[in-house]
Amino acid sequence: MSTLALDDPQDRARPLCETPSRRAQELADRLERGARLLILLTTRLTEAQWRIRLPRDGRTVGLLVHHVASVYPLEIQLAQAVAAGQPVMGVTLDDIHQMNATHARMYDGVTKAAALDLLRRASAAAARAIRALGGVQVHPVPLGSMYGNAPVTCQFVLEDRAVRHSYQHVATIEKALKAHDDAFERLKACVESGLNCRPVFLRDAS
């Protein structure tokens, strides 16, 4: 079966949102489920757990929650631009890393109440924006420097960014909490054994 080239004039003339709105609804639902998972995981954490730093990452659990919430608007804007057939230029992964570093400096001490409130509001707004697309674009648009100029669809951008983000960090936080608990148990066992123990296991949890 023959396929159309990406620059086929007939292909370019097709509407960008070709698929039923059901797909946009499903993506919005998945984003909301991920946000709820992150809220459920973190809402009952103690203050000490909220301040646990992720190994190698260095950010606290609380900062990571605020990070997810704060980038929803940017991730949705990116998807909306692709849905409109607009290539996004001048945005690289290095730019994203720099943005995350700036955010970390500004919000390192964010409170649980502030972070979770922002997460609830930002995820709800993101879900509404996805549903407002009415359908999800299936014709690829070159996304400039973001993905090495690879042609991508609106659905791909949503799944790779806004929809996936909370699920990714639920796993990250669960791993950090488990590592902290395991480190504490090892230290406790060492102390109870009467050995001269140093709290090296907790170096990433301060």
Description:
By secondary structure, this protein is mainly alpha-helical. 62% of the residues lie in helices and 2% in strands. The protein has seven helices and two strands, in the order ααααααββα. It has helices at 9-12, 21-42, 47-50, 61-83, 93-107, 112-132, 154-192, and strands at residues 141-142, 151-152. A two-stranded antiparallel sheet has the order 1-2. Strand 1 (141-142) and strand 2 form a beta hairpin. The protein starts with 8 loop residues before the first helix and ends in a 14-residue tail after the last helix.
Task: Supply database-style keywords.
206 residues; two-stranded antiparallel sheet; 7 helices; 2 strands; elongated; disordered N terminus; disordered C terminus
Q: Which SSEs are present, and which pair or pack?
A:
Elements: H1 9-12, H2 21-42, H3 47-50, H4 61-83, H5 93-107, H6 112-132, E1 141-142, E2 151-152, H7 154-192
Antiparallel strand pairs: 1-2
Helix pairs in contact: 2-6, 2-7, 4-6, 4-7
Distance between the termini: 59 Å
Count the helices. How many?
7
State Rg.
Answer: 21 Å
Strand % is: under 5%
Q: Can you give the helix content as a percent range?
A: 55-70%
Q: How many β-strand stretches? A: 2
Give the averaged pLDDT, no decimals: 82
Global morphology: elongated
Largest sheet: 2 strands, antiparallel
Q: Please mark out the parts with pLDDT under 50 across 5 or more consecutive residues, or reply none.
A: 1-20, 199-206
Strand order of the largest sheet: 1-2
Structural class given helices, strands, pairing?
mainly alpha
Helix and strand element order = HHHHHHEEH
